[in-house]
From TrEMBL:
Residues 122-222 form the Phosphatidic acid phosphatase type 2/haloperoxidase domain. InterPro entries: PAP2/HPO, PAP2/HPO_sf. It comes from the Bacteria. This is PAP2 family protein.
Amino acid sequence: MKKIVIATGILLNLCCYHAQDTIQSRNLQKDLALISSDSITQVKTPFFKKEWVKKSVAPAILFTAAAATWGEKENLREVRNRYLPTFKAKYDDYLQYAPAAAVYGLKLAGVKGRNNLGRATLSYVTSLAIMGILVNSIKYTAKVERPDGSKNNSFPSGHAAMAFTNASFLHKEYGMVNPAYSIAGYGSAALTGLGRNLNNRHWIPDVLAGAGIGIISTELGYFFIDKIYKNKGDNLSMLSRIQGNDYPSFLAIKLGSAFGTTNFLKESDLDNNKQIGFEGGLEGAYFFSKKWGIGGDISFSSFPIKPLRETLDDGKDFGDYSIITQSLGFLGAGIGPYYSHEFSDKWQLTLKATGGYSATSSGKVFIKSNDIDTPTHELQIARYKPKPAFRWSTGASLTYKFNPGLGITLYSDYNQIKSTIRYYFSDTLEDSEQLNQELNNLLTKERINYFTLGLRLTAYF
């Protein structure tokens, strides 16, 4: 009997332990479920990490740039008329289609992209339909006259919209395969937009707005088709996801404003007449480690010069007149060390110091007065010719990465050029030996210092 009692007690104890374990297990499971549920409901996606925000950043920047340059479009066109007045090359009529042709070429060659051929075509056609509706509805509502005066359908640029729709199509299909595809696509689209401006067919705001429409049209086209297929792509599981670049090597397109310092053109007495200019160009760097690399840039900067107003009184009243000096332009290239520091996977700081060559464009000086009997009331009195010079620059930039392969960069550079400018006055001065000697041998040595502030579209490779 004693053994039976002991055995019964052991069994009862085992049953109690099993029950307690079951209760504890159930409670633990419920607690974990509640904790997990609470975590899901409490965690919110930060605003700038929301999918729709990331997709709309680039178009928003382009639309903002179009609005910001609208009031300066005439001045920006004068830069084209100043340096390339006879430019005529119709490459932009064909280059706009290059990224889309690349997509179909890669697919027919068997290179796997985001989607199979049928779905990619459906997404592309949808994107084109959205782009066409947006461009044409705005064109024939705004009725902006083209720079060449041919038609009133300048804004926005259909060529730029088509080029950036096609570039985004290439980026969507093959950007995650290799960032080089995105770089090539958006590079060709940028050249198309530049061609529209150089061919005098569109204003700068037309091109910027067209680019924004092209990008957002492709995003919307893929959004709707992805909803129909209920996934993000046919071949995503087959493609290796880009986890990040070991080294921050990059290629970028940049555009910004240029600000002369207080001694800009001081020796030519034009320091107080300089105006805010602009800068555009390409920049890139190859990094040998996560911190250090070597890079450079090719850029063009132009500074408008405000007319100098004077009153000529030499015993007779000649009235007010203006001295007009054509804008001063610099085409420069430099190379030097680059340093990079990543604050996170989204934010990156880059520092640089470069040295190189700067070629400065020649220009003319006019006197303008209502008393001058010419169609424009202007008379050329001189021309100037700066000598090529050494340029050094230093700068800092901060990049926000939309993804590991693409980002938008805020940059600021300081540039210095020491140039000698020779002034040649009107040939009529040669009749006067004294004036010819004094004026036609006029040299000024200028220390041309200026800051640039702008944005870069940065592609990493």
